[in-house]
């Protein structure tokens, strides 16, 4: 039988990216109470409505009395609450504690359902409050006057509210004036963020009918309610904040305006491959990197600090090659201001457009630098006109985007470019609070032969000190060394610094948020917690490996299930790891499936060789080295190791591996046509008497027999006769007899189409 046409059809592969990052967010609609709360007044014997959407924390607007009808019981489920609750109970307060149980609590929800406000606004209400349920006092020096809208909280009022409880749990820092909210947080994290003891937060939520433990995560609506309750303003993520402290990070930053300082701008250079990003940076930085890059292309984000007119600027150089979309997007998201570089001799190209889109999406101001002007080309106007199509209107054309022709060879206009960058940065009013624990983003990370896992960190807020404990996704760290841009060891690094950090437990993913925490235990615990919410790389690897969905599986027959390329990949750093995964995920996998068993930064080791041998995988390196003993192991186990230096070489190498597993594919090329006139029998064999109507028929050629457009047979002409003679071919206009042993059902009027099968170029 012939290969069926359908076998040649491309099946669209469907992509399923499993989103495993389930967040632990409290369900507010169905909370658990530790003990029964009875509503008096308008609603009797009614539990609090906890739908935050309806009334933030669901307390009816009319004044209500909550009566704690029984003492808090220590039930298993809520023992953490009671533990933290007990913390508050110093001996001194035990009597009050007993009294509290019988005390009526008034919650006046009129004022933004703010428990503290409602209690503090009325002496009578304060009097009704159970004393031990109140917030502990801050030391006098920490009692700051805050303004929240028109609602001033004076020192005197604070002292009224903050009746003494337990001084031992006072946090070292004063609460910030405002916080920026993006992610859900645990009570513990929130406590650190707003410098309010966990017990106070738990208490506040408890009074709202929400029972939580310190490790439980609450969503941003509840965080917002808590923050407001403690007099801390909340900025939402999408708030158009011109006076932004830090831009585009996934973590909320603690910024106390009292301590905020101006910080240097982070500037990203984006553009198409070879348009001169690295050469421009070299000129600015007076280094010579473009010549050192393998294959002349940038393959990771490089970061530099430079000083111009006594002002520091942090530059990020991003790769232009198409494989590095994630890195460019990350660069755009980290940056305060950007430079889009366009080579005068090449104009706007795909990665230029992609860069523009990233910046527009991230709402980042940018300047366009038209490079290679020393090549004496006069097409600046043309490029400016072309930019209009992409919604980039230059100042010359009446828009707001500065366009500066430059040469990184002669240095023409580079000063003007830097001045423009500083001007744009000034408009952003960039600030950070160096008094906080460091927070930042991992720009790059790799496994170093001598120092172990090493990461390049952009500090966005706070100050990092040697010896600090950090959590970076699933990695924890006790910072052993901080290396600055000049490759010197330093003791501390302030906001908008790019530093290398040593002392990490593993190689973190690029783009991962790095947070300094107060102690080693917390860093380790958080790293373990983060394991459940997979790292970026693990998520991408899973998505890539699970690209065959049930739909696509049904199109693969049992033979095809073996069509799988298994890979073990070792890379130079996490940025490359991500870029490789991104590129591989572009491959269609309906015909051959990819299975990335492991992709990690680091040297290729004998263990990798053994794993490759036992799993029948290809072992591939990218810009990495061989650990001692690796080559011997490879020779012994007959494992071939491919080590690539340029990303597109690696991607093409893997594509070829997949293509070698493809079934051969053919196209049909028509040869001739005939029509059956009569059918006669000869010694019980049916012979089709035909006339060739187009071109020719050949003996042994492939044919289809069609009856009213339905194929009734596909096969080969076994015997072709002209009159009585066997012939090899019959030309158009002549009659012939065709015999095919396995097809005897000829009918007059059947149409015969003869064709050749020509091998096609195989593609995934
Ligand atoms: N004449 C001239 N050549 C330049 C200029 N800027 C860059 N080049 C040359 O253009 C080529 C590419 O420059 P790179 O700086 O490596 O380009 P890139 O944009 O960093 O490339 P990727 O990192 O691969 O994205 C190199 O040969 C540079 O010497 C310039 O202003 N004038």
From TrEMBL:
Every Tr-type G domain range: 262-430
Pfam families given in the database record: EF-G_D2, GTP_EFTU, IF-2, IF2_N
Region (Disordered), start-end ranges: 1-22
SUPFAM superfamilies: Initiation factor IF2/eIF5b, domain 3, P-loop containing nucleoside triphosphate hydrolases, Translation proteins
Record's protein name: Translation initiation factor IF-2, chloroplastic
Sample GO molecular function, one term: GTP binding
Function: One of the essential components for the initiation of protein synthesis. Protects formylmethionyl-tRNA from spontaneous hydrolysis and promotes its binding to the 30S ribosomal subunits. Also involved in the hydrolysis of GTP during the formation of the 70S ribosomal complex.
UniProt cross-references to InterPro entries, sorted A to Z: EF-G-like_DII (IPR053905), IF2_II (IPR044145), IF2_N (IPR006847), P-loop_NTPase (IPR027417), Small_GTP-bd (IPR005225), T_Tr_GTP-bd_dom (IPR000795), TF_IF2_bacterial-like (IPR000178), TIF_IF2 (IPR015760)
Record organism: Porphyra umbilicalis
């Amino acid at each position: 039988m012939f290969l069926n046409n359908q076998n040649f059809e491309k099946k669209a592969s469907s992509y399923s990216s499993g989103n495993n990052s389930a967040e632990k967010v409290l369900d507010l609609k169905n909370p658990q109470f530790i003990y029964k709360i009875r509503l008096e007044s308008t609603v009797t014997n009614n539990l609090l409505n906890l739908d935050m959407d309806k009334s933030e924390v669901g307390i009816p607007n009319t004044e209500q009395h909550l009566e704690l009808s029984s003492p808090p019981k220590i039930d298993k489920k809520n023992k953490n609450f009671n533990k933290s609750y007990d913390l508050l109970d110093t001996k001194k307060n035990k009597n009050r504690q007993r009294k509290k149980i019988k005390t009526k609590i008034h919650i006046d929800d009129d004022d933004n359902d703010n428990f503290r406000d409602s209690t503090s606004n009325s002496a009578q209400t304060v009097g009704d409050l159970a004393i031990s349920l109140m917030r502990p006092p801050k030391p006098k020096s920490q009692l700051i006057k805050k303004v929240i809208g028109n609602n001033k909280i004076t020192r005197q009022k604070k002292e009224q509210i903050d009746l003494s409880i337990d001084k031992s749990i006072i946090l070292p820092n004063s609460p910030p004036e405002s916080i920026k909210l993006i992610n859900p947080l645990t009570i513990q994290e929130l406590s650190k963020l707003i410098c309010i003891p966990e017990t106070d937060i738990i208490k506040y939520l408890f009074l709202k009918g929400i029972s939580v433990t310190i490790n439980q995560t609450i969503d941003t609506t509840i965080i917002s309610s808590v923050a407001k309750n403690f007099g801390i303003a909340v900025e939402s993520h999408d708030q158009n904040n011109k006076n932004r402290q830090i831009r585009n990070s996934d973590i909320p930053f603690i910024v106390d305006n009292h301590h905020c300082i101006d910080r240097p701008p982070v500037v990203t250079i984006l553009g198409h491959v070879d348009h001169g990003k690295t050469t421009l940076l070299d000129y600015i930085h007076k280094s010579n990197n473009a010549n050192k890059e393998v294959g002349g292309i940038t393959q990771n984000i490089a970061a530099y600090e430079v000083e111009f007119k006594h002002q520091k600027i942090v530059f990020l150089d991003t790769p232009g090659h198409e494989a590095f979309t994630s890195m460019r997007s990350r660069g755009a998201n980290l940056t305060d201001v950007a430079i889009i570089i366009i080579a005068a001799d090449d104009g706007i190209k795909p990665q230029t457009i992609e860069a523009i889109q990233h910046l527009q999406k991230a709402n980042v101001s940018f300047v366009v630098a038209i490079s290679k002007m020393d090549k004496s080309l006069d097409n600046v106007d043309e490029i400016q006109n072309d930019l209009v199509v992409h919604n980039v209107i230059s100042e010359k054309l009446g828009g707001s985007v500065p366009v500066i022709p430059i040469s990184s060879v002669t240095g023409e206009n580079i000063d003007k470019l830097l001045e423009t960058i500083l001007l744009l940065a000034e408009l952003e009013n960039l600030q950070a609070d160096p008094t906080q624990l460091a927070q930042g983003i991992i720009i790059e990370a790799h496994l170093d032969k001598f120092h172990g896992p090493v990461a390049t960190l952009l500090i966005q807020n706070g100050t990092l000190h040697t010896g600090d404990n950090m959590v970076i996704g699933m990695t924890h760290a006790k910072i052993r060394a901080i290396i600055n841009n000049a490759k010197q060891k330093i003791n501390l690094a302030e906001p908008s610094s790019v530093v290398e950090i040593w002392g990490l437990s593993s190689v973190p993913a690029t783009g991962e948020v790095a947070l300094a925490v107060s102690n080693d235990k917390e860093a380790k615990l958080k790293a373990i917690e983060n394991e459940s919410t997979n790292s970026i790389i693990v998520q991408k690897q899973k998505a890539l490996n699970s690209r065959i969905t049930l739909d696509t599986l049904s199109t693969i027959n049992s033979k095809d299930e073996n069509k799988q390329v298994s890979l073990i990949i070792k890379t130079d750093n996490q940025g490359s790891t991500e870029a490789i995964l991104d590129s591989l995920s572009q491959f269609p996998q309906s015909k051959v499936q990819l299975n990335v068993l492991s992709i990690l930064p680091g040297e290729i080791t004998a263990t990798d060789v053994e794993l490759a041998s036992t799993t029948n995988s290809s072992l591939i390196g990218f810009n990495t080295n061989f650990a001692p003993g690796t080559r011997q192991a490879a020779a012994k186990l007959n494992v071939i190791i491919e080590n690539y230096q340029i990303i597109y070489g690696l991607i093409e190498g893997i594509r070829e591996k997949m293509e070698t597993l493809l079934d051969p594919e053919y196209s049909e090329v028509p040869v001739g046509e005939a029509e059956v006139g009569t059918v006669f029998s000869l010694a019980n064999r049916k012979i089709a008497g035909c006339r060739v109507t187009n071109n020719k028929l050949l003996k042994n050629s492939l044919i289809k027999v069609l009856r009213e457009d339905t194929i009734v047979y596909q096969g080969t002409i076994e015997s072709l006769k002209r009159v009585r003679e066997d012939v090899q071919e019959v030309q158009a206009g002549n009659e012939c007899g065709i015999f095919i042993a396995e097809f005897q059902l000829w009918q007059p009027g059947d149409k015969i189409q003869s064709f050749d099968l020509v091998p096609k170029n195989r593609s995934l």
